[in-house]
Automatic annotation (TrEMBL):
<keyword id="KW-0547">Nucleotide-binding</keyword>
<keyword id="KW-0067">ATP-binding</keyword>
<dbReference type="InterPro" id="IPR003593">
    <property type="entry name" value="AAA+_ATPase"/>
</dbReference>
<dbReference type="GO" id="GO:0005524">
    <property type="term" value="F:ATP binding"/>
</dbReference>
<feature type="domain" description="Sigma-54 factor interaction">
    <location>
        <begin position="182"/>
        <end position="421"/>
    </location>
</feature>
<protein>
    <submittedName>
        <fullName>Mutant NtrC-like activator</fullName>
    </submittedName>
</protein>
<dbReference type="Pfam" id="PF25601">
    <property type="entry name" value="AAA_lid_14"/>
</dbReference>
<dbReference type="InterPro" id="IPR058031">
    <property type="entry name" value="AAA_lid_NorR"/>
</dbReference>
<dbReference type="InterPro" id="IPR002078">
    <property type="entry name" value="Sigma_54_int"/>
</dbReference>
<dbReference type="Pfam" id="PF00158">
    <property type="entry name" value="Sigma54_activat"/>
</dbReference>
<dbReference type="GO" id="GO:0006355">
    <property type="term" value="P:regulation of DNA-templated transcription"/>
</dbReference>
<dbReference type="InterPro" id="IPR025662">
    <property type="entry name" value="Sigma_54_int_dom_ATP-bd_1"/>
</dbReference>
<dbReference type="InterPro" id="IPR027417">
    <property type="entry name" value="P-loop_NTPase"/>
</dbReference>
<feature type="region of interest" description="Disordered">
    <location>
        <begin position="445"/>
        <end position="472"/>
    </location>
</feature>
<dbReference type="InterPro" id="IPR025943">
    <property type="entry name" value="Sigma_54_int_dom_ATP-bd_2"/>
</dbReference>
Amino acid sequence: VDEASARASGSVGSAGIPGLTRIPMQQKLAADMSTTAGRAQAGQSPVALSVPALTIVSHPQPQRIGERLLLEVLASQGRTAALSRNAPDFSRPGGLMALPLGDPFLSRKPVEFEPGPRGGLRMLVPEDGTQVRVANEPVVGGREFSREELSDGVPLVLADRVVLLLHLASSFRQPGVLDLGIVGHGEGIHRVREDIIRVADLAVPVLILGETGTGKELVARAIHTSGPRRAGPFVSVNLGALAKELVAAELFGAQRGAYTGASRDREGFFRAAEGGTLFLDEVGEAPPEVQAALLRVLETGEIYPVGGHTPVPVDVRLVSATDAHLEARIQERTFKAPLLHRLAGFEILVPPLRERREDVGLLFLHFSRQELEAMGEGGQLTTSDPRAEPWLPAALAVQLVRHAWSGNIRQLRNVTRQLVIGSRGTPGLRADARLEQVLDADAQPVPGRPLTVRTGEEAGDGAKAPRRKPADVGEQELLEALRASSWDLKATADWLGIPRPSVYVLIDKSSLLRTARDLSPEEITRCFHECEGDLDRMVQRLEVSKRALQRRVRELGLSGG
C-alpha cells in the first residue's frame, strides 16, 4: 500500500470512527461457557466461542454503521434470538452507547434466529412483520444458513432501509488492544493488532504478508509508532518501483563517481532511517545482488555504499512486506532462502477484505467521511432523523459487501471516492452503469436456502438431519449440537442424524465433554444454590444431560430439583 493509501486508511481518530478494542464478556455468557472451563481451575481466562453476530452496514443514521449485536444465546444456550425495531441494542465493540435499530419503518414483530444443524442458523420471518431480503432475494417464511455461509457473511436487508451483515464473531477478546489507527472490528484485523503489540517493542525483523491493497504499510507504521523507535524516522521504500540498476544505490547509498551520473555522494534509505524503521515493500522484487547485501546487513548491522570499501554501521529496525509467494520463488531460485529466514523473524498475515466483510461498511464510512470533509460536506453523515432516507441505499450496500474486492482496501477506497464525487449534489449515493457492472462482477453467491416456518412438534421433526455414521461426528460438532438442543440427548441425536446410544458413546470418548457422574457433589451443590434450584439454569452452566443431572440432585438430597 502506498503512503497516501496508508494515510487514508489510518487517520481514524480525526474521523471519529472508533477502532476495535474489545467486546466485554457478559457474566451470563461467562457462566454458560463452562464445558471446557468447568474442568479448569478457578481464575482461568474465559473460553472464547465463535458466535453469530449482526453488524450494521447501512442505516438511515449513517453514524451507526459498524455497530454490532452478538447473538450469544444461540451459541451458549441454544435459545432463539429475536430482532425488531425496539430490541435488542446494537453498540460499537468497546463502546458505552447501545441503541436498538429504531427505524420506524421496521416492525415491532421480531425476526427470529434459531440454531440450525451442524453449527448453522435458521432465520424465521413473520408473514405480517418486517420485509426481509437476503441480498436481492425476498425471504418468505424463513431461510437456513450453513456455518460456512455464516463465516463468509450473509447480507440481510430490512424494509429496504437497514442492511445488516450476519456473520461469526468471537464472544470474548482480551482487553487492552488499542485500534492502532486501523479501521475495523473483524477477527482477522483483531489478530493483526494483537501481533503488532506482541512484536512492536522487540528488535526482531518483521515480515508482513498479504495480498496487494490490504494495508501492509499501515501495519508497518503501527509497528513503528507502537515501539521504542517511534521518535525516529519511518522510511518507506517500494522496491518494485525502483529501477533495478539503482536499487542498491537507493538502499545503501553511493559514493560520487560510483556509476554514471553519480555526481555527488548519495545517503541511501538505510542511513535515512537511522534510529528508526525502514519499511521495504515488495521485498520479493529485490534483485539477487541486493538480496545478498540485505542478508549481510541483517547479519552484521553494516552496509557498504556502492563504490565504497569501508562498512558503515546502521541502527535500523527492518520491516518488510510482500504479496508474493516467497517459498515458491525460493524453489525457482529467484529468492534466497537465508534472506527469507532473516526477514521473517516474526510474520504478520493481513487478511484480504473478502475475509472481513463485516468491516466493509465501516471502511466505506471512513473513506466517505474523508472525501466529504475534503469537499466541506461532512455533515451529510450525521443525522438524528430516524425517518430519513438512507444516505447509503440498501441495494448499493449489499453490492459492497457481496463484491470480492480483488484490490482489497485500496480498491474500496477508490470506489468510495468515485461514488462520493459522482453523487455530489444529490441527497444520496448512486452508482453509474459502469460502476454497477464492476460491483456486480465476481459477487458472492446469494447464501442460504428457503425454509418454511415450523411450530410445535413440526419444528422438532424438521430439525432431524439425514442419517450419518457416528464416526463422522467431530467433537466440536457434537458440542454445538448439544448446546443447540439444550443438552437434550434425544434432540441431539436427531440433530446429528445418529442413534441416541451413539451420543452417549461420543460423550464418553470426548475430551471436551463430561457427564453428570463426572461432577463432584461440591460442584453440584454450589451450582444448585447459585442457580436457586433452577435445573434448566444448572444444565446450561454445567453442560450435562438434564435427566442425569436431575438424578444426581435427588441423590444428594437437594430439594427443588
